[in-house]
Every structure is written in C-alpha cells, then in structure tokens.
Design brief:
By secondary structure, this protein is of the alpha+beta class. Helices cover about 25% and strands about 30% of the residues. It has one domain. The chain has 9 helices and 14 strands. The chain is globular.
Length: about 325
C-alpha cells in the first residue's frame, strides 16, 4: 500500500513538473478591416484607404492573456478625375514605421502610435477577454478617468475587435517557447476604362507563428485580407466595402472549381501550415519554388498549387518578430 502511495506521489510530482515546465497555451490570430474611400476632384486625388488591423494573442490555461501583439497595415491607392492611377505602393505597418508614423507631435499625451499600442498590449496581459471587453469607451476611445487613458488616447475599437477574433481563432498548443505575428502587403491597382471600373486591391497576408525552444515550428496560422475599392472614369467611388478574409470565406472563396488539384484556398493553406510544422525557418525557406509556386516533383505540390511567395514572406517576418513567452 505504501509502495502504491509512493508511486502515486511520484507520478503526480512528475506531472506537476511537466505542466509547470511545459504549459499549454492557446495561440490565435485575427483581423478586422475598414475601408475609407474618397472620390477624386480637380484639386485632390481620389483615394481608397484600406486599414487591416490584425492581432496575435497567447492565452494561458485560465484564458488570461500572456501576450498580445496588435498592428495595422494602412494602405492607400490614389487615382485622378479620369480614373487613372496616381500612386499605389505598399507601405510599412504602423508598428514598423515607429516614430516615422508621425503621431507624437499632435498627440495630447506626447506619445507615438507604437508607444500607445504597446501600452494597450501591456494592459491586456493578465486579463481575460471579458475583462478587456469591459474597458469603458466613449466613441471608441478610452473613457476619461480610466488609468489607461494617460497612455492611450487613440481610438481602440478595431484593436479590441481584432483581439476578440484572434481569441475566437485560438488553438491549444504545447511545447511553445516563442510566438510572433507579422504581415506582408501587396497592392494591385487597375485604372478605370469605359467598360470596367478602376480598382485598388490590397492584399494583406498576416501570419502567426509558434516556435519551440529549438526554433522549430509548432504551428503556423496564415490568412489573407483581400479588399477592393472601385471607382469610375470620372473618379467617383463605385464600391468600397470590406470583405471576409480568404480563410473566413472557406468554400465561398471559389477556388476549388478552377483548381488543378480540386482543393479550395483554405485547404491548400492548411496543407502548407501543416507542412511547416516541425521545421526551422531555414528549412521552410528552402522550399523549392518556380515563379512563386512549389516546384514540380515536390510532395507538397500535390496539396498546394497556389503562389506561396507572400505567405512565406509573412511567415519569415512573424518568426523575426517572435518573442520568448518565458519572459512574460
């Protein structure tokens, strides 16, 4: 009896040690997009501004935030009163711009955007989603009288919405040492002609990556916020409404029918994510490509025929942004 009791105590001690040394985390990523259109007039170019806010979150076993990372890919495409493209170049995210974003000079508290978002992220750590959502707001800004107001005066509506979606998408993972999130953006402009509306298409590929202590991928989560704003040959806005992400669309994205392997976009990205598991960044980057697509003869080619250049670029940036959870 004493022997059985001793074995039970040893087993519980080992389990407790393993749990402490190897906690289970939930990791997720999510985004929200808004579009701000402006028609062209003689003095001012028209503009399609696409703001994609994405968040990467890590939760502990009690549903409390261990880590939160929020960023915004704010992209502009401009056009004139004849529907011709004026400019459409992908810009850095707000966090990547840092002091160059230029908010500090006009901020009532003298803080840049990246400083304010860092304060919001830090405030969330240790809280549950319910506690974060209970933050008192007035017209999207933190209510006067709240302690956080001294560090965050920007509108936080989209940031909280992206965090909530990231939590909804979170999955349980083990052996996670570091987590990072980042994005890679491209813009596809098209001038307006008599028969066809002009278009500014913004593709924000965002990724969350969880790594183990050896730098190998535990999990990868990749999605694309693809949004269009259209305009006519007089520079007037035709349409500008945000769309669901490619992963959110699922079968409705409509790739399966034209796919040579009969697989939808979300199925192909799931295969790519699964393939990356257990690999290092160097091994993922070594994937042989031909014009951005997986080279013929590679096993993964049977599951992934989409162009993967942007996905791998976002993945690499996410790995570079990964932070050690032990330091949290």
């Amino acid at each position: 009896m004493k022997k059985l009791l001793l074995l039970a105590i040893v087993a519980l001690t080992v389990m407790a040690g393993c749990t402490k040394a190897n906690p289970v985390y939930k990791v997720g990523v999510g985004s929200v997009t808004t579009i701000q259109p402006r028609a062209a007039v003689a003095e001012t170019a028209g503009r399609i501004r696409v703001n994609t806010t994405y968040a990467t979150v890590v939760l502990d076993k009690d549903g409390k935030f261990v880590s939160v990372s929020i960023d915004v890919s704010q992209q502009d495409g401009t056009f004139d009163v004849a529907g011709a493209i004026v400019a459409a170049n992908a810009a850095q995210t707000k966090k990547e711009k840092g002091a160059a974003y230029g908010m500090k000079g006009s901020s009532a508290i003298g803080k840049e955007w990246d400083e304010q978002i860092a304060a919001l992220e830090a405030w969330m750590v240790g809280k549950t989603l319910a506690e974060v959502k209970a933050l008192p707001l007035t017209e999207g800004k933190i209510k006067d009288g709240e302690d956080l107001k001294s560090s965050v005066t920007i509108t936080v509506t989209d940031y909280l919405a992206a965090v909530e979606k990231a939590v909804a998408n979170a999955v349980e993972l083990q052996n996670v040492a570091k987590v990072g999130g980042a994005s890679f953006t491209t813009i596809q402009p098209r001038a307006a002609v008599a028969e066809t509306a002009g278009r500014i298409r913004v593709n924000v590929t965002f990724a969350a990556v969880a790594l183990d202590k050896d730098g190998k991928v535990v999990a990868t989560m990749i999605d694309v916020a693809q949004n269009d704003g259209t305009f006519d040959v007089a520079g007037a806005i035709v349409a500008a409404a945000p769309a669901a992400t490619k992963k959110e669309k699922g079968a409705a994205y409509g790739m399966k029918g034209s796919s040579a392997i009969g697989k939808e976009w979300n199925e192909q990205i799931a295969a790519l994510e699964a393939w990356a598991a257990g690999k290092t960044l160097a091994e993922v980057k070594a994937l042989p490509l031909t014009e951005g697509k997986i080279k013929d003869g590679e096993d993964l080619k049977s599951s992934v025929t989409v162009t993967v250049t942007d996905y791998l670029a976002a993945f690499e940036k996410a790995v570079a942004a990964a932070k050690d959870l032990a330091a949290k």
